Amino acid sequence: MTLAITTWNINSVRLRLPIVEDFLRRTNPDILCLQEIKCQNDQFPVEQIAALGYSNIVIHGQKGYHGVAICSKLPLTEDHRQDYCGVGDSRHISAIFEWAGRRIRLHNFYVPAGGDEPNREINPKFGHKLDFIEEMKALSAEAEVGTGAILVGDLNIAPLEHDVWSHKQMLKIVSHTPVETEGLLEVMRQGAWVDLMRQHVPASEKLYTWWSYRAKDWAAADRGRRLDHIWSSADLSPLLSRIDILKEARGWTQPSDHVPVTAYFKAA
């Protein structure tokens, strides 16, 4: 028995619905987690996605900005929305599903980008991002007895040296500054999370999920960052069979600047 979970910052689900539908037809994951859906709950294309077999959908939307959703072939229960930093943004949703006799809590996050200046004194957006990460440190992969956990999403931080195209040149760029990377690694440590994307790909190898719209030829420049993540509780990590990063999606018609990342699990 296998399980496939995809995370994808879609950068407007209504604008990019055609590529979402195409991806689901081609890849057919069991669960699709979307970030930055940029719509309110009643504007989400439920009918179109349900028509492809994803009849279990939970949404935490917001007008024009942010927003996350979980679209699943498997039943979803006990959905929860956490208001990180108490500002009313729609940046988190979670739900329970069952697979291979296991009960699993799936978290879907869209962490604030943090603006352009890595200084909270002059850039409130950066301060908000640091506060958000600080609150995430309280989230444990072992929070619910008898329940495994998976955390996915656009975390807007590339924590390791080879998660960016140039570690040296990125140290003062938001998403790879030491205060951010150390903060995210501490979220993993304190919460007992396992970085599944690096389980089969050594930390010494480059690994990207995002390429800027600003690059004239993104593929030739290949100045990417690993901003999208899939983590799990320790009991699930041995079941991971592979991670697929669909780089070609960055070159699709009207693409997101992020590409889908899919984790495949195989029951023991």
Automatic annotation (TrEMBL):
Keywords: Hydrolase, Magnesium, Metal-binding. Its cofactor is Mg(2+). Belongs to the DNA repair enzymes AP/ExoA family. It comes from Rhizobium wuzhouense. Residues 7-258 form the Endonuclease/exonuclease/phosphatase domain. Signal peptide: none annotated. This is Exodeoxyribonuclease III. InterPro entries: AP_endonuc_1 (IPR004808), AP_endonuclease_F1_BS (IPR020847), Endo/exonu/phosph_ase_sf (IPR036691), Endo/exonuclease/phosphatase (IPR005135), ExoIII-like (IPR037493). The keyword Hydrolase applies. PROSITE patterns: AP_NUCLEASE_F1_1 (PS00726), AP_NUCLEASE_F1_4 (PS51435).
